[in-house]
Amino acid sequence: MPELPEVEHVVRALRHTITGRTIVAGEVRLPKLIAPLSAAAFHRKVKGSTIKGVSRRGKFILIECHRGRNTESNRSDFILAVHLRMTGKFLYLYPDDDIPKHSHAIFYLDNDRRLVFRDQRQFGVMKLIAGGQLTRTKGIKELAPEPFGEDFNPEYLKSVVHRSRRSLKTLLLDQTKVLGLGNIYASEALFRARINPFKIAGELSPARIIRLHQSILAVLRDAITDSSTSRIDLEQEDGFSYGEAFERFWQVYEREGESCVNCGSKIRRATHGGRSTYWCPKCQRR
DNA sequence: ACCCTCACCTGCACGC
DNA sequence: TGCGTGCAGGTGAGGG
Questions:
Q1: How crowded is the C-beta side of A195, counted as CA atoms within 13 Å?
Q2: Is A8 part of the annotated catalytic residue set?
């Protein structure tokens, strides 16, 4: 379920929790999670490595590790890149806690705690990336610029939008074009920009592209800020709950039939490319 | 290069 | 109570 704001919160929680810890052992129970690497090879690589830090690229969580004493040497450094997809979660278990169902990877840490990757739907993915290879890794190298970076500017968005004949809603979900939105925040960003989700991207006026750019940033930033009131707790059964702090902020998503906060019209829902899209028919006319 | 459809999974809410 | 259906916030492979 997580989109960029939720991933950002998981990254902060992990950074705070596991930076500096050494991985004593790594166990993989669902081989496809790390395929084509074998569980044995995975264990050999992570065993004895120390976690330097935790960062993010798009919706990928990057756990930066190094091995051996010489931290200056890049040679044996690697990144564990984790994508939560729909239901992936991290848990930080106490020694006596049971390992819950759907736990597909377990990292035994040097403080006797275990970091568990749990994923009910098994869509999540882990990649072991050798030092310096991040920008050459398939699935990561294709990603659009970070939304909060300099390269994601109105000019960039204009170039992407003008080249596309897809609907804006579909375009916003394409991580190689616009990074960080998912099905919820794509609807929310279009609502804030007052743009109809079915509008063809290439037909968007320059003024509206600027508005869309601002709305994308505002939605992501607000979601990160608002939800910080609900701290992501890696010790909860679910690792973290998206909870009310995230939902409270939705203005159209999952609000079919409710009144638009701007004009009072009934929010509509339609299935578009197999996924739900929500919009206000009056504020977001075609 | 672009874009569409389907596939990957489990669990939950719903109607009968 | 059970069973079938549709739905869920993400992406990638494969094809046109």
A1: 29
A2: no
